[in-house]
Amino acid sequence: MDFQLSEEQSILREMIRDFARREIEPVAAELDREHRFPTEILEKAAALGLMGVTVPAEYGGAGMDFLSYMIVLEEIARSCASTAVILSVHNTLGCGTLLKFGTEEQRRAWLPRAARGEILGAYLLTESGAGSDAASLICRAERRQDGWLLNGSKTFISNGAHAGFGILYARNGNEGGSRGISAFILDMKAPGVHKGPEEAKMGLNASSTVTVNLEDVLLPPESLIGPEGRGFSIAMEMLNAGRIGIAAQALGLCEAALEESLKYSREREQFGRPIGQFQSIQEKLTDMHMLTEASRLLCYRAALAAESGEAIILQAATAKLFASRAAVRCAEQAVQIHGGYGYSKDYKVERIFRDARVTEIYEGTSEVQRLVMARQLLER
Protein backbone atom coordinates (compact mmCIF):
# COMPACT_ATOMS: atom_id res chain seq x y z
CA MET A 1 0.00 0.00 0.00
CA ASP A 2 1.43 3.39 -1.03
CA PHE A 3 1.46 5.98 1.76
CA GLN A 4 3.18 8.62 -0.34
CA LEU A 5 1.12 11.80 -0.23
CA SER A 6 0.09 13.40 -3.49
CA GLU A 7 1.33 16.86 -4.33
CA GLU A 8 -2.09 18.27 -3.46
CA GLN A 9 -2.08 16.52 -0.07
CA SER A 10 1.43 17.78 0.71
CA ILE A 11 0.38 21.32 -0.14
CA LEU A 12 -2.73 20.90 2.00
CA ARG A 13 -0.62 19.75 4.96
CA GLU A 14 1.59 22.80 4.74
CA MET A 15 -1.40 25.12 4.38
CA ILE A 16 -3.21 23.68 7.42
CA ARG A 17 -0.01 23.57 9.47
CA ASP A 18 0.61 27.24 8.69
CA PHE A 19 -3.01 28.10 9.54
CA ALA A 20 -2.82 26.23 12.84
CA ARG A 21 0.46 27.79 13.90
CA ARG A 22 -0.61 31.28 12.86
CA GLU A 23 -4.25 31.34 14.00
CA ILE A 24 -4.64 28.59 16.62
CA GLU A 25 -1.35 28.01 18.43
CA PRO A 26 -1.05 31.56 19.85
CA VAL A 27 -4.49 31.40 21.52
CA ALA A 28 -4.91 27.67 22.27
CA ALA A 29 -3.67 27.88 25.88
CA GLU A 30 -5.91 30.89 26.54
CA LEU A 31 -8.96 29.13 25.08
CA ASP A 32 -8.24 26.13 27.31
CA ARG A 33 -7.69 28.25 30.40
CA GLU A 34 -10.87 30.29 29.85
CA HIS A 35 -12.95 27.31 28.67
CA ARG A 36 -13.81 29.44 25.64
CA PHE A 37 -15.33 28.00 22.47
CA PRO A 38 -13.14 28.89 19.43
CA THR A 39 -15.83 30.69 17.42
CA GLU A 40 -13.38 33.02 15.65
CA ILE A 41 -11.12 30.12 14.67
CA LEU A 42 -14.06 28.16 13.24
CA GLU A 43 -15.06 31.16 11.13
CA LYS A 44 -11.56 31.27 9.65
CA ALA A 45 -11.58 27.50 9.22
CA ALA A 46 -14.84 27.76 7.28
CA ALA A 47 -13.16 30.18 4.86
CA LEU A 48 -10.60 27.45 4.13
CA GLY A 49 -13.30 24.84 3.52
CA LEU A 50 -12.65 22.99 6.78
CA MET A 51 -16.31 22.91 7.82
CA GLY A 52 -17.16 20.74 4.83
CA VAL A 53 -13.92 18.94 4.09
CA THR A 54 -15.39 15.88 2.35
CA VAL A 55 -18.69 17.49 1.39
CA PRO A 56 -18.94 17.56 -2.43
CA ALA A 57 -18.74 20.92 -4.19
CA GLU A 58 -22.36 20.60 -5.33
CA TYR A 59 -23.37 21.04 -1.68
CA GLY A 60 -20.87 23.83 -1.07
CA GLY A 61 -18.06 21.75 0.40
CA ALA A 62 -14.36 21.33 -0.35
CA GLY A 63 -14.84 17.85 -1.83
CA MET A 64 -11.58 16.43 -0.46
CA ASP A 65 -10.73 12.75 -0.08
CA PHE A 66 -10.80 11.05 3.31
CA LEU A 67 -7.01 10.93 3.78
CA SER A 68 -6.82 14.68 3.16
CA TYR A 69 -9.47 15.11 5.83
CA MET A 70 -7.38 13.07 8.29
CA ILE A 71 -4.38 15.28 7.52
CA VAL A 72 -6.51 18.31 8.39
CA LEU A 73 -7.49 16.85 11.77
CA GLU A 74 -3.93 15.74 12.49
CA GLU A 75 -2.46 19.18 11.84
CA ILE A 76 -5.19 21.04 13.76
CA ALA A 77 -4.76 18.69 16.75
CA ARG A 78 -1.05 19.49 16.92
CA SER A 79 -2.04 22.99 17.99
CA CYS A 80 -5.42 22.47 19.65
CA ALA A 81 -7.14 19.13 20.24
CA SER A 82 -10.36 20.92 21.19
CA THR A 83 -10.66 22.52 17.76
CA ALA A 84 -9.82 19.19 16.13
CA VAL A 85 -12.63 17.32 17.86
CA ILE A 86 -15.11 20.09 17.03
CA LEU A 87 -14.23 19.69 13.35
CA SER A 88 -14.28 15.89 13.59
CA VAL A 89 -17.77 15.66 15.07
CA HIS A 90 -19.14 18.27 12.67
CA ASN A 91 -17.57 16.81 9.52
CA THR A 92 -17.78 13.07 10.14
CA LEU A 93 -20.74 12.43 12.41
CA GLY A 94 -22.80 15.42 11.34
CA CYS A 95 -22.21 16.09 7.64
CA GLY A 96 -20.98 12.55 6.97
CA THR A 97 -24.20 10.94 8.16
CA LEU A 98 -26.28 13.12 5.86
CA LEU A 99 -23.95 12.43 2.94
CA LYS A 100 -24.12 8.67 3.38
CA PHE A 101 -27.68 8.10 4.54
CA GLY A 102 -29.64 11.31 3.96
CA THR A 103 -32.04 12.01 1.13
CA GLU A 104 -31.23 14.55 -1.56
CA GLU A 105 -33.70 16.94 0.05
CA GLN A 106 -32.03 16.54 3.44
CA ARG A 107 -28.59 17.14 2.00
CA ARG A 108 -29.62 20.28 0.17
CA ALA A 109 -31.47 21.58 3.21
CA TRP A 110 -28.57 21.21 5.67
CA LEU A 111 -25.18 20.61 4.03
CA PRO A 112 -24.58 23.95 2.26
CA ARG A 113 -25.08 25.88 5.49
CA ALA A 114 -22.95 23.37 7.41
CA ALA A 115 -20.14 23.55 4.84
CA ARG A 116 -20.16 27.36 5.01
CA GLY A 117 -19.87 27.18 8.79
CA GLU A 118 -23.24 28.83 9.33
CA ILE A 119 -24.44 25.90 11.44
CA LEU A 120 -22.46 23.39 13.48
CA GLY A 121 -23.26 19.68 13.68
CA ALA A 122 -23.61 17.45 16.75
CA TYR A 123 -24.18 13.74 17.34
CA LEU A 124 -26.82 12.76 19.87
CA LEU A 125 -26.38 9.08 20.67
CA THR A 126 -25.05 8.71 24.24
CA GLU A 127 -27.39 8.69 27.23
CA SER A 128 -26.69 8.50 30.95
CA GLY A 129 -27.53 4.78 30.91
CA ALA A 130 -26.37 4.08 27.37
CA GLY A 131 -22.67 4.71 26.80
CA SER A 132 -20.67 1.76 25.49
CA ASP A 133 -23.99 -0.11 25.35
CA ALA A 134 -25.59 2.32 22.93
CA ALA A 135 -28.34 -0.17 22.02
CA SER A 136 -29.87 0.35 25.48
CA LEU A 137 -30.91 3.94 24.77
CA ILE A 138 -34.39 4.93 25.92
CA CYS A 139 -34.98 8.29 24.21
CA ARG A 140 -38.38 7.93 22.50
CA ALA A 141 -39.66 9.01 19.09
CA GLU A 142 -43.41 8.55 18.73
CA ARG A 143 -44.95 8.67 15.27
CA ARG A 144 -47.62 11.35 14.96
CA GLN A 145 -49.75 12.39 12.03
CA ASP A 146 -47.70 15.57 11.70
CA GLY A 147 -44.29 13.99 12.30
CA TRP A 148 -42.32 12.58 15.23
CA LEU A 149 -42.64 13.52 18.92
CA LEU A 150 -39.34 13.18 20.80
CA ASN A 151 -38.77 12.89 24.53
CA GLY A 152 -35.60 11.97 26.39
CA SER A 153 -32.14 13.11 27.32
CA LYS A 154 -28.72 12.83 25.66
CA THR A 155 -25.46 13.24 27.56
CA PHE A 156 -21.84 14.17 26.73
CA ILE A 157 -22.91 15.83 23.48
CA SER A 158 -19.89 17.37 21.77
CA ASN A 159 -20.62 20.74 20.10
CA GLY A 160 -23.98 20.60 21.87
CA ALA A 161 -24.21 24.15 23.17
CA HIS A 162 -23.31 25.68 19.79
CA ALA A 163 -24.81 23.21 17.31
CA GLY A 164 -27.44 24.21 14.79
CA PHE A 165 -28.32 20.65 13.83
CA GLY A 166 -27.79 17.22 15.28
CA ILE A 167 -28.01 13.59 14.24
CA LEU A 168 -30.27 12.09 16.88
CA TYR A 169 -30.99 8.45 17.68
CA ALA A 170 -34.23 7.46 19.39
CA ARG A 171 -36.31 4.36 19.99
CA ASN A 172 -39.52 4.33 17.98
CA GLY A 173 -40.47 0.68 18.41
CA ASN A 174 -41.23 -1.69 21.25
CA GLU A 175 -38.39 -4.06 20.41
CA GLY A 176 -35.43 -4.06 22.77
CA GLY A 177 -31.74 -3.90 21.96
CA SER A 178 -30.60 -2.46 18.65
CA ARG A 179 -33.95 -3.04 16.95
CA GLY A 180 -36.51 -0.28 16.83
CA ILE A 181 -33.95 2.56 16.87
CA SER A 182 -34.19 5.23 14.17
CA ALA A 183 -32.06 8.20 13.16
CA PHE A 184 -33.36 11.76 12.80
CA ILE A 185 -32.15 15.23 11.87
CA LEU A 186 -32.75 17.48 14.84
CA ASP A 187 -33.01 21.25 14.54
CA MET A 188 -31.16 22.22 17.72
CA LYS A 189 -33.22 25.41 17.97
CA ALA A 190 -36.56 23.61 17.80
CA PRO A 191 -39.03 24.23 20.65
CA GLY A 192 -38.48 21.76 23.47
CA VAL A 193 -34.73 21.34 22.92
CA HIS A 194 -32.99 22.38 26.13
CA LYS A 195 -29.20 22.51 26.44
CA GLY A 196 -27.65 22.05 29.85
CA PRO A 197 -24.54 23.73 31.27
CA GLU A 198 -21.07 22.86 30.02
CA GLU A 199 -19.48 19.79 31.56
CA ALA A 200 -16.48 20.50 33.80
CA LYS A 201 -13.96 18.32 31.98
CA MET A 202 -10.34 17.33 32.60
CA GLY A 203 -9.30 18.42 29.12
CA LEU A 204 -10.60 19.63 25.75
CA ASN A 205 -11.78 22.69 27.64
CA ALA A 206 -12.29 24.80 24.51
CA SER A 207 -14.80 22.29 23.15
CA SER A 208 -18.46 22.16 24.11
CA THR A 209 -19.89 19.15 25.95
CA VAL A 210 -23.41 19.35 27.36
CA THR A 211 -26.53 17.37 28.17
CA VAL A 212 -29.42 17.94 25.75
CA ASN A 213 -32.95 17.41 27.06
CA LEU A 214 -35.86 16.86 24.68
CA GLU A 215 -39.36 17.73 25.91
CA ASP A 216 -42.16 17.10 23.42
CA VAL A 217 -39.98 18.08 20.47
CA LEU A 218 -42.02 17.75 17.28
CA LEU A 219 -40.00 16.92 14.16
CA PRO A 220 -41.47 16.94 10.64
CA PRO A 221 -41.90 13.58 8.86
CA GLU A 222 -38.93 14.29 6.58
CA SER A 223 -36.59 14.35 9.59
CA LEU A 224 -36.20 10.57 9.49
CA ILE A 225 -32.77 9.51 8.17
CA GLY A 226 -32.66 6.23 6.31
CA PRO A 227 -35.21 3.44 6.78
CA GLU A 228 -37.22 3.41 9.97
CA GLY A 229 -35.66 1.06 12.52
CA ARG A 230 -32.19 1.18 10.89
CA GLY A 231 -30.78 3.83 13.20
CA PHE A 232 -28.46 1.63 15.19
CA SER A 233 -26.67 0.27 12.13
CA ILE A 234 -26.33 3.85 10.81
CA ALA A 235 -24.84 4.95 14.14
CA MET A 236 -22.30 2.13 14.22
CA GLU A 237 -21.24 2.66 10.62
CA MET A 238 -20.65 6.37 11.19
CA LEU A 239 -18.73 5.70 14.40
CA ASN A 240 -16.33 3.53 12.39
CA ALA A 241 -15.44 6.58 10.30
CA GLY A 242 -15.41 8.75 13.40
CA ARG A 243 -12.87 6.49 15.07
CA ILE A 244 -10.40 7.14 12.29
CA GLY A 245 -10.87 10.85 12.96
CA ILE A 246 -10.10 10.34 16.64
CA ALA A 247 -7.02 8.34 15.61
CA ALA A 248 -5.93 11.35 13.55
CA GLN A 249 -6.53 13.64 16.51
CA ALA A 250 -4.45 11.31 18.70
CA LEU A 251 -1.72 11.29 16.05
CA GLY A 252 -1.60 15.08 16.15
CA LEU A 253 -1.23 14.95 19.93
CA CYS A 254 1.64 12.46 19.58
CA GLU A 255 3.38 14.81 17.18
CA ALA A 256 2.87 17.81 19.45
CA ALA A 257 4.22 15.93 22.48
CA LEU A 258 7.29 14.85 20.55
CA GLU A 259 7.86 18.29 19.05
CA GLU A 260 7.71 20.00 22.44
CA SER A 261 9.96 17.35 24.01
CA LEU A 262 12.62 17.64 21.30
CA LYS A 263 12.66 21.40 21.66
CA TYR A 264 12.96 21.22 25.45
CA SER A 265 15.62 18.50 25.32
CA ARG A 266 17.82 20.72 23.16
CA GLU A 267 17.35 23.82 25.32
CA ARG A 268 17.24 22.51 28.89
CA GLU A 269 20.65 21.98 30.47
CA GLN A 270 21.49 19.94 33.55
CA PHE A 271 24.88 18.78 34.77
CA GLY A 272 26.51 21.05 32.23
CA ARG A 273 24.91 19.81 29.04
CA PRO A 274 21.52 19.62 27.24
CA ILE A 275 19.35 16.88 28.69
CA GLY A 276 18.91 15.47 25.18
CA GLN A 277 22.42 14.10 25.48
CA PHE A 278 21.39 11.76 28.30
CA GLN A 279 20.51 8.23 27.28
CA SER A 280 17.41 8.06 29.49
CA ILE A 281 15.94 11.08 27.66
CA GLN A 282 16.95 9.71 24.27
CA GLU A 283 15.11 6.46 25.01
CA LYS A 284 11.93 8.41 25.73
CA LEU A 285 12.26 10.45 22.56
CA THR A 286 12.85 7.42 20.36
CA ASP A 287 9.88 5.60 21.90
CA MET A 288 7.70 8.63 21.22
CA HIS A 289 8.91 8.76 17.61
CA MET A 290 8.18 5.06 17.14
CA LEU A 291 4.67 5.36 18.58
CA THR A 292 3.97 8.42 16.43
CA GLU A 293 5.07 6.80 13.18
CA ALA A 294 3.17 3.58 13.89
CA SER A 295 0.04 5.61 14.67
CA ARG A 296 0.44 7.49 11.39
CA LEU A 297 0.64 4.28 9.35
CA LEU A 298 -2.42 2.76 11.01
CA CYS A 299 -4.42 5.98 10.68
CA TYR A 300 -3.51 6.57 7.04
CA ARG A 301 -4.14 2.91 6.15
CA ALA A 302 -7.62 3.09 7.66
CA ALA A 303 -8.28 6.38 5.85
CA LEU A 304 -7.28 4.93 2.49
CA ALA A 305 -9.50 1.91 3.13
CA ALA A 306 -12.44 4.20 3.91
CA GLU A 307 -11.83 6.19 0.74
CA SER A 308 -11.76 3.02 -1.40
CA GLY A 309 -15.00 1.72 0.06
CA GLU A 310 -13.47 -1.25 1.89
CA ALA A 311 -14.90 -2.59 5.14
CA ILE A 312 -13.15 -0.53 7.80
CA ILE A 313 -14.47 -1.93 11.09
CA LEU A 314 -11.24 -3.73 12.01
CA GLN A 315 -8.89 -1.10 10.62
CA ALA A 316 -10.73 1.80 12.26
CA ALA A 317 -10.79 0.08 15.65
CA THR A 318 -7.11 -0.85 15.35
CA ALA A 319 -6.06 2.69 14.43
CA LYS A 320 -8.17 4.23 17.19
CA LEU A 321 -6.99 1.82 19.88
CA PHE A 322 -3.30 2.13 19.04
CA ALA A 323 -3.15 5.86 18.34
CA SER A 324 -5.12 6.80 21.45
CA ARG A 325 -2.85 4.71 23.66
CA ALA A 326 0.17 6.16 21.87
CA ALA A 327 -1.08 9.71 22.52
CA VAL A 328 -1.45 9.04 26.22
CA ARG A 329 1.99 7.42 26.42
CA CYS A 330 3.67 10.22 24.45
CA ALA A 331 1.99 12.81 26.66
CA GLU A 332 3.18 10.99 29.78
CA GLN A 333 6.74 10.89 28.47
CA ALA A 334 6.60 14.55 27.45
CA VAL A 335 5.60 15.59 30.97
CA GLN A 336 8.37 13.43 32.42
CA ILE A 337 10.98 14.95 30.11
CA HIS A 338 9.89 18.43 31.16
CA GLY A 339 10.11 17.47 34.84
CA GLY A 340 8.48 19.97 37.17
CA TYR A 341 7.77 22.31 34.27
CA GLY A 342 5.74 19.55 32.62
CA TYR A 343 3.32 19.79 35.54
CA SER A 344 2.94 23.54 35.03
CA LYS A 345 0.21 25.12 32.93
CA ASP A 346 2.86 27.44 31.52
CA TYR A 347 4.00 24.57 29.29
CA LYS A 348 2.00 23.05 26.45
CA VAL A 349 2.69 19.43 27.45
CA GLU A 350 0.45 19.80 30.51
CA ARG A 351 -2.50 20.55 28.21
CA ILE A 352 -1.51 17.74 25.82
CA PHE A 353 -1.50 15.34 28.78
CA ARG A 354 -5.06 16.29 29.76
CA ASP A 355 -6.38 16.37 26.20
CA ALA A 356 -4.90 13.01 25.24
CA ARG A 357 -6.62 11.02 27.96
CA VAL A 358 -10.12 11.22 26.52
CA THR A 359 -9.05 9.71 23.18
CA GLU A 360 -9.11 6.33 24.94
CA ILE A 361 -12.72 6.94 25.99
CA TYR A 362 -14.92 8.76 23.49
CA GLU A 363 -16.27 7.31 20.23
CA GLY A 364 -15.70 3.87 21.73
CA THR A 365 -13.51 3.08 24.72
CA SER A 366 -10.32 1.06 24.33
CA GLU A 367 -12.16 -1.89 25.84
CA VAL A 368 -14.88 -1.63 23.20
CA GLN A 369 -12.27 -1.39 20.44
CA ARG A 370 -10.74 -4.66 21.62
CA LEU A 371 -14.16 -6.34 21.58
CA VAL A 372 -14.79 -5.06 18.06
CA MET A 373 -11.39 -6.20 16.87
CA ALA A 374 -11.69 -9.65 18.44
CA ARG A 375 -15.11 -10.19 16.89
CA GLN A 376 -13.81 -9.22 13.46
CA LEU A 377 -10.77 -11.49 13.77
CA LEU A 378 -12.79 -14.49 14.94
CA GLU A 379 -15.34 -14.06 12.15
CA ARG A 380 -12.72 -14.13 9.39
Summarize the structure in words:
This protein is of the alpha+beta class and 380 residues long. It folds into 3 domains: 7-120, Butyryl-Coa Dehydrogenase, subunit A, domain 1; 122-229, Beta Barrel (Butyryl-CoA Dehydrogenase, subunit A, domain 2), CATH 2.40.110; 233-378, Butyryl-CoA Dehydrogenase, subunit A, domain 3, CATH 1.20.140. The protein contains 10 helices and 10 strands. The strands form 3 sheets. It has a 4-stranded mixed sheet. A 4-stranded antiparallel sheet has the order 2-3-7-6, covered by helices on one side. The chain starts with 6 loop residues before the first helix and ends with a helix.
Topology:
Elements: H1 7-34, H2 39-47, H3 66-79, H4 81-101, H5 104-115, E1 121-124, E2 140-144, E3 147-158, E4 165-171, E5 181-187, E6 193-195, E7 209-219, E8 224-225, H6 231-267, E9 269-270, E10 273-274, H7 279-308, H8 313-338, H9 348-357, H10 366-378
Parallel strand pairs: 1-4
Antiparallel strand pairs: 2-3, 3-7, 4-5, 5-8, 6-7, 9-10
Helix pairs in contact: 1-3, 3-4, 3-6, 4-5, 4-6, 6-7, 6-8, 6-9, 7-8, 8-9, 8-10
